[in-house]
Amino acid sequence: MLEAQNRRPARFITFEGGEGVGKSTQVKRLLSHLAEISVDAVRTREPGGTPKAEAVRSFILQGRSETWGAGAEAVLFAAARLDHVNELIAPNLAKGTWVISDRFSDSTRAYQGLTGGVDAKLIDALESLALDGHTPDLTIVLDMDPETAFQRVAQRAIEDGLTLTGDRFEKEELDWHRRLRDGFLDIARTNADRCVVLSADQAEDSLENEIWSLVQSRFPELQTGTDA
C-alpha cells in the first residue's frame, strides 16, 4: 500500500473566484479530506506563499501600488508568482506533495487583465515567465453574485464582532466586482478542460462535498490508491 501511495502523481489544484466566495474555507476542507486518505498536501495562497511573495502581497493589498496602475500591479504579481513557483510549488510537486493554492495566475488575468484593462499580450508574457510550465491540473472557480458575497462577509463580520474595512480590491465598487465575476467565468469557458465552475451560493458543507466528489472523479487514483 505504501508503494502504491508513493506512485501517486502530485497534483496542483487552484481555487479562484471573486471576493467573499469562501475559497479559503474550502481550501482547508479539501486539505482535510486529502489528509484523511494520507495524501501529502501543502496549502498556499496568492499573492504570497513565500516570504518575498508575502512582502509583495502586503504592499499591494495595503493599496500602496494602486497609483501605479493595473499594468504595474500585474508585473508585481508576476514577480511574486515566479518566487512562489520556484521556492514552493515546483519543489513540493517534485517530491510528490500536492499543492492547493488559494488563487493563482487566473486571478491576475481576471483582476488586472479582463477587469483592469491590461493588454492580454502582456498578461500572457508574464504568465509564461512566472509559471515555467506549472499549470494547475484543476482550477475550481467558486461563483457567486458579488452582492450576495458581500452580504455574507458583512454578516460574518458582525457575528465575529469585527469591523469591515476591506483591502485594496474589496473596496472597489459593486459594478467592478460584477465585471470581475464575468472575467472569471470567461476564463473558465476558455479553459474548460482545466476549470470547473461551482456555485458558492450554497451551504458550506454541501459545497465541500461537491468539491470532494469533483476531485475524486478528476483524479481516480485517490480512490484506487494507484496511478490512473
UniProtKB/TrEMBL annotation:
GO CC aspect terms: cytosol
Keywords, ordered alphabetically = ATP-binding, Kinase, Nucleotide biosynthesis, Nucleotide-binding, Transferase
Task: Report the record's Gene Ontology biological process terms.
Answer: dTDP biosynthetic process; dTTP biosynthetic process; dUDP biosynthetic process
Catalytic reaction equation(s): dTMP + ATP = dTDP + ADP
**Enzyme Commission numbers on file:** 2.7.4.9
Q: Does the keyword Kinase apply?
A: yes
Output the superkingdom of the source species.
Bacteria
Q: Where is the Thymidylate kinase-like domain?
A: 15-211
> What PROSITE patterns does UniProt report for this protein, alphabetically?
THYMIDYLATE_KINASE
**UniProt keyword Nucleus, yes or no:** no
Query: What are this entry's molecular-function GO terms?
Result: ATP binding; dTMP kinase activity
What Gene3D superfamilies would the database entry show? P-loop containing nucleotide triphosphate hydrolases
Coiled-coil regions, chain positions: none
| EC primary class | transferase
Q: Which InterPro entries does the UniProt entry name for this protein?
A: P-loop_NTPase (IPR027417), Thymidylate_kin-like_dom (IPR039430), Thymidylate_kin_CS (IPR018095), Thymidylate_kinase (IPR018094)
Q: What does this protein do?
A: Phosphorylation of dTMP to form dTDP in both de novo and salvage pathways of dTTP synthesis.
Q: What is this protein called?
A: Thymidylate kinase
Lineage at the top is: Bacteria, Pseudomonadati, Pseudomonadota, Alphaproteobacteria, Hyphomicrobiales
